[in-house]
């Protein structure tokens, strides 16, 4: 069990960061407003959690302009995909052990 717990990643222990990564694992990219609506969070809350994931290099942030408005999109990095998969695998193993 100790080895399994080593793969639990603190970056994903928050429901919003878990949600962001879940969306980005099944979509190539997602913009700020899409994530905000899907996760039902405020602008500031989403901005803080995306910043945390970006600081870990788990997501890539791309800022563009559409007319005069900023359009921010996010994409999971290879490092982020690997870390998230390891996290999910560890959770699955914990769940399997609980069923025994």
From TrEMBL:
Pfam families (UniProt xref): HTH_34
InterPro entries per UniProt: WH-like_DNA-bd_sf, WH_DNA-bd_dom, WH_DNA-bd_sf
Domain Winged helix DNA-binding: 16-94
Protein name (record): Transcriptional regulator
Organism: Capnocytophaga catalasegens
């Amino acid at each position: 069990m100790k080895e399994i717990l080593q793969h639990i990643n603190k970056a994903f222990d928050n429901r919003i960061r878990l949600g962001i990564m879940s969306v980005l694992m099944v979509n190539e990219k997602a913009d700020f407003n899409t994530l905000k609506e899907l996760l039902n969070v405020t602008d500031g809350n989403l901005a803080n959690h995306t910043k945390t994931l970006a600081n870990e290099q788990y997501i890539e942030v791309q800022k563009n302009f559409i007319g005069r408005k900023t359009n921010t999109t996010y994409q999971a990095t290879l490092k982020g995909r690997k870390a998230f998969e390891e996290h999910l695998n560890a959770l699955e193993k914990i769940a399997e052990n609980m069923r025994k």
